[in-house]
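Dear colleagues,

For the upcoming journal club I promised to circulate an example of a predicted protein-ligand complex. I picked one with flavin-adenine dinucleotide because it came up in last month's discussion. The inputs are reproduced below in full, followed by the predicted structure.
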Amino acid sequence: MAATTEQVPVRSRGDGEVLPRRSSFDFVIVGGGPNGLTAAAYLAKWGFSVCVLEARPELGGGAENHEPSPGFSIDPHASYFYGAAAPALSQLELGRYGLRASTVTNFGGCASPDGRGFFGAGNFFHEGKARDPEVLAQIMGVSLDVSKVFVEFMSALEPHMTDFFRSIYWTPPYDEKWGLTRSDLPWAQVLREALPFFDEVMLEWSLCEMMNAMGLPDPFKTGLLVGSWGNGPHPFHKGMAIPGFAVQQLMFYSNCTPVGGMHALAHSIIRCGLAHGARMYVNAPVTEVLVEDGRAVGVRVDDETALEEKTIRANMGVILNTHVKQLPGLVSGSHLSQDFVQRVDDLSLKGGSLFVANMAVSELPQYTSAGRELHGADYPVGMLLHSTEDQMLDLMRDVYSLNTHPTDPDHYQLWLIVHSAHDATRAPDGYGVITMNLQVPPPEDHRDGPDAVNKASGEIMETIYDVIHQYAPNMTRDKFVKTWVNTPQDSEFRNMAFVGGHWWGMRGSEDEWFSRKPLPELARYRTPVESLYLCHQTSYPGGLCLLAVPYNLMHILQEDYEQISSTTPEWWYPSKWHITDAEGGTR
Amino acid sequence: MSDDLSSVYPNLAGNPLEGIEFPQEHETDCVVIGAGPNGLIAAMYLAAAGLDVVILERRYEIGGGLATEEILFPGHLVNTHATYHFMTDYMPALTDFDLGTRGLRFHKPNMQLRGRINGDDVLLCRSLEDSRDSMARGSIKDAVTFGDMALRFRKIVDGVLGPATYLPPGAPLDLMEALDRTPVGQDMLALSEQSAVEILQEYSLPDSTLATLLYAACQWGISPQESGMGFMVPLMVDRGMQKAYSYGGSHRLASSFARVILENGGLILDNAEVAAIEMDGSRAAGVRLADGRRIHARKAVLSSLDPQTTFLRLLPEDAAPKEIRSQAESWTWDKWSLMSVFFSVRGKPTLRNADGNLSGDTFETVLGFDDFDDVVAFLESVERGEIPKIAGHFTCESAFDKTLSQVAGNHTCFFQMPAPYDYPWDARRDEIVAEVTDLLDAHFDGFRASVVDAVLESPHEIERRLPNMVRGSIKHGDYNPVQMGNMRPNTDCSATRTAVPGLYVCGASTYPGGMVLGGPGYIGAHTVCEDLEHPFPREYTRGINTYLDTYFPDGLPVA
Ligand SMILES: Cc1cc2nc3c(=O)[nH]c(=O)nc-3n(C[C@H](O)[C@H](O)[C@H](O)COP(=O)(O)OP(=O)(O)OC[C@H]3O[C@@H](n4cnc5c(N)ncnc54)[C@H](O)[C@@H]3O)c2cc1C
Ligand SMILES: Cc1cc2nc3c(=O)[nH]c(=O)nc-3n(C[C@H](O)[C@H](O)[C@H](O)COP(=O)(O)OP(=O)(O)OC[C@H]3O[C@@H](n4cnc5c(N)ncnc54)[C@H](O)[C@@H]3O)c2cc1C
């Protein structure tokens, strides 16, 4: 461990000793987003010396919060917590470093223009309503037959929920070369055991097909489809039904956000890393990965940083917490094949760019949709407006055909999130903050130029206010105190790794999923350069602050470094479905 | 360890992080309330001393007055509160820990303060020679006079005020006796009796120079004609020419302190408002957070908040002697606060007809005053609650720190001025931004056209961000002769111990006072270690030892 470098006292507790000034570490991590930070915390806690170099003025990447006006906490990017099943929470003891949950009692619902509504997902799952077909039928506005199917499905799955989640997200993808099939997928293994009615065809379904098979109607159905689209897995593409369904459940079952917002999650990870001796620097953009004899041996940092050295050596490895599309720019051409660079270039950015508006309001929306009475006293945290399948298809078409904004007010399918309803730290008394997401095309692809959405943002906001008013008549214009817009282009310039302002990094289609995400040779986090790894939301399993990529990466690092595998700490536990290269190669 | 989650997860009854998140009850040695510079410094020394420390911060980010935030969202950061670091040459916290390896880097611009008084530019520089050269444009005699004044002030700061910032205050009589030992000490005693106006008017310097010096001496809250506060003149004038900028923003200083705390096993909780100090009998034994969590302190509770919050709101009514409570009740807030307008602009603002002597960017530019008397009249009317006109100081922070603007070619800057709390800020917000823009447009080429965004932060916003800065009190309480020295916040508590066993005060309302001095936090940690008979982790700096040897050869008198 740390064999090739001077020994760093991991904690200088009490001895008052100062850590040595140095520019060489076991691992250098490029980027301080949730995935980079978590990798740093894992490695530091494991006992290695680690340096994180972050280009932005703050650590946290997409897990950001700001207070542009006193008391109003906004979410420019990540807003919901989906990661309650992450092994990292307990392995890194994030609670010890301050992580606290603000529990959600009513997750929210969806509403469509004809007045239909579904409310109270929180109660629905957490007060057992999901297990009572009669109540469920009433809430969802479906027949008893349909609700019974759903209850049967959920009741069979629930005891296996942790495994279900982890088999999809918290397990390293298999190597495509092993020639495994759909039915070998980790989640196929779990479902086969969990569901008496499991059928291999489920693995082939699109999420929409699955919803149809269960007879689920709008607005609930579209709520799930949009949730899937919004989180990566394409709802209409084959083979993504299970990941698409699971990502929704991740949100419902996580059932909380960190007190203070997602940046507080980053804080706990940062503090865990620092407490274990990691060094973390901001305003330190890395411009180049140094490669010697085909191995990554360090990085070069932009000279305008607070670091005295411009070269930081990595004795064991370099971990990129950057977008896969940044990789060719960071590694000089001769180390990457033309073919590889071309295929990285070919990866599409479509379908995940968000127009975000954080709105300080003097009153919370009071929705008029049906079903409202069922949500009880607790305010619904999330709300999807325009929740019909047609509206979703219209919006999708607008986005994929690169329209600056939805071509009709009816296509403004808005996702509203109100954390201030359950977390007192997020807005001053008597006020709230609504975070709103709307899908728009990525700047790069935009036929009207990369700043088209920015230029139209005033207009877009006008329609957004109108749509909110349509569903919540109390929300007249005077209730909106101040609005902060964050377009995909803003996301990009504020965070180099948000290429396309894409909120989950890369398309979630079967041909870019699991063993092929983002490219087959990158699926197991290795890159064409030895000891250079990709640990970013463009790696498997993709976007969201799940702390999954670095957990998965740790399995691979154990295979690659004897110093790591021979020092496995007692707090570590691997994925049940992990297959090592050696095992995989013999299948 | 096995997969401990699957048994509890998913917890359908409620909180999926039960058993994982920070517990409802936690025990530690020392609890520090408030993570501003003072709280952080106290926690840093206590953690380095090997004590278990938890520091609690109400906001979503630590730092208090050390805040660098993206209030010009998206893409432009500013230092919402402290920008100028006056005490980097003396603050032990900066040299006791290797903060450079934790990302801290200070930069001291040479052109520190430009007073643009009625068309005349007065340039005060880090390099005394450069300041003299600027004075010499008037007359060589001015340059010499100015140089003598600057050196006189420097001696007082270097020999007395600098080191004394980091030692508990003495009783006035002890202090007078001690200072009487040297000519520098005697000079400082004499100065203290006078007002800023009196001190400066003794110098035969051009009016524009005196006006600039007076603004520098008083801008942070000194009444120009109040006597008994004279020692602030050498301090603020000397330090006003030695301000440093923290690269990456003032928040960097807070994060470098935080790194040391964490590396030494300390715990930092943000979004953690302290709602009450809890007692065990007559002893302060911990705190309760607004969310109901409890942190028990086996050894000490340190509050860096203002006296009213600490003694009247957080402590149970019967915990503190009546006298302390009534002293807290009569505590007076800063006589004025600050109003800032933050701008994001295209291109770096260039001062029209700037003094051609020196190249580079000026750290602080004073604008809008006509002469010495105007500065006096202006400050006095602000003190009465008026805004007589727009006049104050300007800094283009991104000229020294390109990290503040994430948009290529754009800059961030602010205009700041002394301002009253009681004022119709919300009603006049837009007008004031327009007036400030006018003033800046008159001095900086094409300023108005370059503005991308502007945000006004009034004293109300200061208080909303940091409620311990009551009425926008940037120093947690007025600087006046009865709230300074061993009377800050009162004679019982000024050495950071309070009448409540186990409770210490270590924020800007405690001796030596506000601004980012790091004095109260340092002294607080020292006192706690002393009371616990626990070794303090660092030696005094050389400057502090020299001061002690010179003025207190028999040791500091016990209070
Ligand atoms: C609008 C929006 C809404 C979202 N909502 C949610 C949500 O509700 N819940 C959720 O869980 N997730 C959400 N996400 C997704 C989540 O933010 C990302 O999945 C997550 O941040 C990815 O983490 P990461 O560490 O892989 O990358 P990032 O968070 O992007 O971090 C990468 C870091 O690397 C740095 N970097 C890049 N290049 C360099 C370089 N050359 N040198 C140094 N540093 C560099 C970047 O500055 C950045 O800080 C949302 C995202 C967006 C855009
Ligand atoms: C606009 C402005 C400009 C300034 N400019 C300068 C400058 O240029 N140079 C300079 O040296 N000084 C400057 N100051 C003054 C300086 O910022 C303060 O004097 C200094 O920050 C005081 O430090 P402190 O640690 O004592 O308290 P603070 O910095 O006020 O920190 C106290 C902390 O306690 C927290 N807190 C409050 N209540 C609770 C609670 N109940 N529970 C837990 N935490 C709580 C607060 O959120 C805050 O973080 C400026 C101040 C302002 C407002």
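Two points we might discuss: Confidence is low (pLDDT under 50) at residues 1-21 of chain A. The first helix of chain A runs from residue 34 to 46.

See you all on Thursday,
B. R.
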